[in-house]
Each structure stands twice: as structure tokens, then as C-alpha cells.
Amino acid sequence: MEYQAGRRRHQIDSDTLLVHFGLQPNLHLSELAGCRHLWHDGQQCWIADTDTWGNSNISGISVVGDSASIGGARAAKHQGRLAGLEAAYALRAIRREQRDQRARKDRRWLQTDLRIRPFLQKLHRLPAALLATADDDTLVCRCEEISAGQIRQAVRAGHHSPNAVKFLTRCGMGPCQGRQCGSAVAHIVAQSLQQDIAQQVPFRARPPASPISLAQLADLKIGDTQT
After folding, report:
1. Which among 127, 124, 142, 140 is positioned nearest to 70, based on CA atoms?
2. H or E element in which residue 39 lies
3. Number of neighbours of residue 199 by Cβ within 10 angstroms
4. In the chain, fewer beta carbons within 10 Å around the N or the C end?
5. How far is CA 95 from the centre of its chain?
6. Which residues contact residue 13 at a Cβ distance below 8 angstroms, ignoring those fewer than 6 apart?
7. Which part of the chain has CATH 1.10.10.1100?
8. How far apart are CA 16 and CA 6, in angstroms?
9. Residue 87, Cα to own-chain centre: how many angstroms?
């Protein structure tokens, strides 16, 4: 492997290279529930449209942590506490004043912790060449073995959205249900149409889903890796 740091080029002998292209929220459950999602240019992905308490556009459904947008484990913990306080208020178990009072530390912590996120997003921003590969032979959907060239051909044939491409090519219909290729397909479609990615709509989520209960979450202990 060769890389450049400053003006110097370096070489490291290695049999395997693992490349990390960032994180995206796990939106499968919120998409199945019909929640609204927005394109976030900083994170370069779709995120759940929520307020500061985690409320989605659907009454009774809250989305927090990395299922809403990428903020890290500690941020998810505080967002979960805020959502819990909001749920208690919605159920009239506490008053608005109690909710706001108990939420102060969590909201202050989140404001401090997430302050660096815009810098990190700009520092690690992926170039367009990686988001929409120029190589038509590159496999985009590994489950169904659909290449970037096949996706572009579908767009030229009049299929101008990720879902339309999906119906024609089966791209995103494999075991991962588009979790791995959905963003790449949307970028290729947008690039082919010379559109902004925000104009596209991601793949529609499909079952199966495996939700867990609050009781199961409450039973987890720190360091517990069982699923």
C-alpha cells in the first residue's frame, strides 16, 4: 500500500487493506414506520427528521441515536434520556417544567459534544468520485451482482429514481435489502441525471425487521455483547 503524507510518499507491505468510508444511520425501522427523512449534506446521507426530543413526524414514534443521525454512543445515551423524558411528559407522568428541568444537563452535554461534528464532517467528506464511481464495471449491489453500468443503463432507459432502478434491475432486493448499496445507487442516479442528491428518494424499506423491547434493552449490562 502506498500513501502520501505531506510531500512524502510512504509504502507499507500488507496482504489486506481495510478501508473505512464513514457511517450512516440505520434507518430501516423508521423507514418501515413511514417516518420522514431528510438529506444531510454534512453527513452525506439521509437522516430521520426529528426535533430536539427525538419526536418524528409521526405521533408516538421517536428516533434517537445512530438510528436518527450519526453522533456517537455517548450522544445516543443522552438523546435516549431526552426521548424518555418526552415520553413521560406525553403520558402525563411528569409536567413540562419537570421534563425541561431534568433535561438541562443532557441538552447541555449534547450541545458541547456535537459541536465538533461539522468540523469532522468537512474533514472526512467523501469526494464525488467515491460516492458515484465512474467505473461502469464496479459492482454496486453485491447481493444481486448489479454494476454501476447497469444502473446507468437503467437511468438512460427512463428509470429516474433509485426505486425505479430497483424494480428494473433487482438492485437492492438481495439479503441486505439495499442497506449496503442504497446510497451508492442514489448517487449514481443523481449524477446520471445531473441532479442534486437531495432530489432523490432512497429505497423503500421492506421487511423483515427484528425489533427488540425496552425490557430487553433495560436488561443489558455494560460490556454485554450478546444479541
Report:
1. 124
2. strand 37-40
3. 12
4. C
5. 33
6. 1
7. 128-199
8. 24
9. 24
CATH architecture of 128-199: Orthogonal Bundle (1.10)
Confirm if 126 and 134 have CB atoms less than 8 A apart. no
Nearest to 76 by CA among 118, 26, 33, 36: 26
Cell 449534547 belongs to which residue?
110
For 209, the grid coordinates are 425487521
Can you tell me the distance from the alpha carbon of 173 to that of 157, in angstroms, rounded to the nearest whole number?
20
**Does the bond joining 127 to the residue before it have cis omega, within 30 degrees of 0?**
no
Q: Which amino acid makes up residue 172?
A: G
Distance of CA 107 to the CA centre of its chain: 22
CA distance 172 to 36: 20
Q: How confident is the model at residue 117 (pLDDT cuts 50, 70, 90)?
A: very high
- What are 84-102's pLDDT values in tens digits? 999 999 999 999 999 999 9
Q: Distance between CA 88 and CA 121 in Å, rounded?
A: 34
Q: Looking at residue 202, what DSSP letter applies?
A: P
- 165-179 pLDDT, tens digit per residue, is 999 999 999 988 888
Length of the chain (residues): 227
Q: Which residues pair with 38 in a beta bridge?
A: 47
